[in-house]
């Protein structure tokens, strides 16, 4: 395996939290899957041992997926001025944001609608076994996240067998639209609003799923996805009226968190999820 120096990166909290549903930990290694790569990781004190499959030694993928270029300490210094976010930083040091493949992210968060993390993870694994490519890593077999064209061409009855229920039609139809529009290939030349507009037009995608995609699949630092709990946090702790529209709340987070609303939101999400959702 390869070795890379990495500091201030909490793999457990980052990979097994609510931003990605495609990671597992077996007690020694983290294993993750996307539509392009299987990733094997082991965390040391200030370094990782890592490997990618089926393409070996793909350091470019590792650096981009884990966003290793970000100035993490600068981000923390900006958002820690907020006392509620600071509680999350103190409890979960090293929590990071990922940049996952765009289409994987869209489909994952369509599946997340009105769903819990355990069920989402299970459904995505079934879906991957059904439609993803099988890859051997050491003595184990893993499955890539399904390519978007495979989902677009899948039978609706087959998709339902992955236990995604009513979301099956949205997954299929959104996949067909993504294939037809070629959106993933165009996003680097598009503005945030242009991408959001096209996302909102996809079947099964509303404000929250669009913002999850912008945050976790496009890596926009100032986009905080707002679910019911997120809106409740802003109302309870930040004094925003619960009657404010989703867009109005989004604008407030962008201003308040100094351009790093996505990072602040992740700390708030994990803090609330572990301390108040019981």
From TrEMBL:
GO MF terms, alphabetically ordered: class I DNA-(apurinic or apyrimidinic site) endonuclease activity; damaged DNA binding; oxidized purine nucleobase lesion DNA N-glycosylase activity
EC number(s) per entry: 4.2.99.18
Gene3D superfamilies, A to Z: 3.30.310.260, Helix-hairpin-Helix base-excision DNA repair enzymes (C-terminal), Hypothetical protein, domain 2
Pfam families tied to this protein: HhH-GPD, OGG_N
Catalytic class of the enzyme: lyase
InterPro entries according to UniProt: DNA_glycosylase, HhH-GPD_domain, HhH_base_excis_C, OGG_N, Oxidative_DNA_repair_enzyme
Reactions accelerated catalytically: 2'-deoxyribonucleotide-(2'-deoxyribose 5'-phosphate)-2'-deoxyribonucleotide-DNA = a 3'-end 2'-deoxyribonucleotide-(2,3-dehydro-2,3-deoxyribose 5'-phosphate)-DNA + a 5'-end 5'-phospho-2'-deoxyribonucleoside-DNA + H(+)
Protein name per Swiss-Prot or TrEMBL: DNA-(apurinic or apyrimidinic site) lyase
Native source species: Candidatus Brennerbacteria bacterium CG11_big_fil_rev_8_21_14_0_20_43_10
Lineage of producing organism: Bacteria, Candidatus Brenneribacteriota
């Amino acid at each position: 395996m390869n070795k890379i120096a990495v500091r201030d990166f909490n793999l457990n909290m980052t990979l097994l939290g609510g931003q990605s549903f495609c990671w597992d930990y077996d007690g020694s290694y983290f294993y993750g899957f996307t539509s392009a790569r299987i990733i094997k990781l082991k965390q040391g004190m200030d370094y990782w041992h890592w490997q990618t499959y089926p393409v070996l030694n793909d350091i470019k993928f590792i650096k981009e997926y884990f966003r290793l270029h970000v100035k993490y300490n600068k981000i923390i210094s900006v958002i820690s001025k907020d006392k509620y976010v600071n509680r999350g930083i103190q409890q979960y040091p090293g929590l990071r944001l990922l940049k996952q493949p765009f289409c994987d992210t869209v489909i994952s968060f369509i599946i997340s609608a009105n769903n819990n993390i355990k069920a989402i993870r299970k459904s995505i694994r079934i879906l991957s076994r059904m439609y993803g490519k099988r890859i051997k890593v050491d003595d184990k077999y893993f499955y890539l996240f399904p390519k978007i064209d495979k989902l677009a061409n899948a039978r609706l009855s087959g998709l339902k067998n992955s236990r995604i229920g009513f979301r099956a039609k949205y997954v299929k139809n959104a996949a067909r639209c993504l294939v037809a529009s070629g959106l993933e290939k165009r996003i680097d030349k598009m503005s945030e609003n242009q991408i959001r507009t096209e996302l909102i037009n996809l079947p099964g995608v509303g404000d929250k799923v669009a913002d999850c995609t912008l945050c976790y699949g496009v890596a926009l630092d100032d986009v905080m996805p707002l679910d019911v709990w997120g809106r409740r946090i802003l109302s309870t702790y930040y004094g925003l009226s619960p009657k404010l529209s989703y867009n109005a709340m989004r604008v407030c987070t962008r201003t308040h968190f100094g351009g790093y609303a996505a990072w602040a939101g992740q700390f708030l999400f994990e803090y609330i999820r572990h301390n108040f959702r019981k």
